[in-house]
């Protein structure tokens, strides 16, 4: 009995000390709310692996300018509320396909300024991802990832693939297929073999294309063709249709919430009224009963009087 207790005590102190030992040697991040989001600020802390000691309920992790070479799924899976992740300017090269899988809340991911060669295709299926920065990963192959991931289902509105190609790595423009919400696309500084209308047919909400210093071989003038071919037109129309459905669904959802709130208010009002009425009724009943009780009491008294009278003296 006593022996067991001692063992448990020893074991727990050992576990505790090994745990705190880990966190004592790890660089410190500053945990604080920024724009009402719980943030782990680990900017420029000389991290070489993904931090293990930041609380799992943070919403923002800022890891810009560190020396992290590898991130795997087990590093990230404990952050259930992670919304924004900055891994800008690290030494990342290989990322497993599954590494970001399950991060349901992740909406902004910055992987700029690394040495990533392959984009994990599962990125393009994240349900909340709307801003993705892949800039300055010189050997990245976006085409393969996109082809593997198609159709892209994440709600991307902003995509930055600037400075990802160079003289030794000239590629075709990636064919993203349909991305109905994409509004901003940054392709600054890239070299492409070819850009054709086909590449933009599925980007029907595109408003800003940042294409400073983009070089492409347009010797056959295919990009400047006056008429867009039928297939591209049909993709464009499909994109617009999906966009329209998304907007409609959003509106219906909003109306649904409005109706729900109104119903709830009505129910609360009805309940309050019901209880008020019931209380009033009870009060009235109690008052009536009190009134009826008085003669009964008097009778009782007279009865008692009668009884005493009937006693033989
Ligand atoms: C994930 O990476 C960490 C280092 O950051 C390592 O300790 C751990 O063993 C890795 N896990 C897997 C499953 O590869
Ligand atoms: C586009 O990318 C370039 C190069 O990475 C960058 O300097 C520029 O700020 C970006 N523009 C926008 C609007 O994000
Ligand atoms: C465009 O290229 C020129 C020459 O290489 C360079 O000086 C300039 O900074 C580049 N502009 C951008 C926005 O990258």
Automatic annotation (TrEMBL):
Q: Which UniProt keywords apply?
A: Cell membrane, Disulfide bond, Ion channel, Ion transport, Leucine-rich repeat, Membrane, Repeat, Signal, Transmembrane, Transmembrane helix, Transport
GO CC terms, sorted: plasma membrane
Alphabetized InterPro entries for the sequence = KCNMA1_auxiliary, Leu-rich_rpt, Leu-rich_rpt_typical-subtyp, LRR_dom_sf
Report the transmembrane regions from the record: 252-276
How far does the signal peptide extend, from start to end residue? 1-20
Name the GO terms of the biological process aspect: monoatomic ion transmembrane transport
Using the UniProt record, give the first listed, main subcellular location.
Answer: membrane
> What is the name listed in the Swiss-Prot or TrEMBL entry for this protein?
Uncharacterized protein
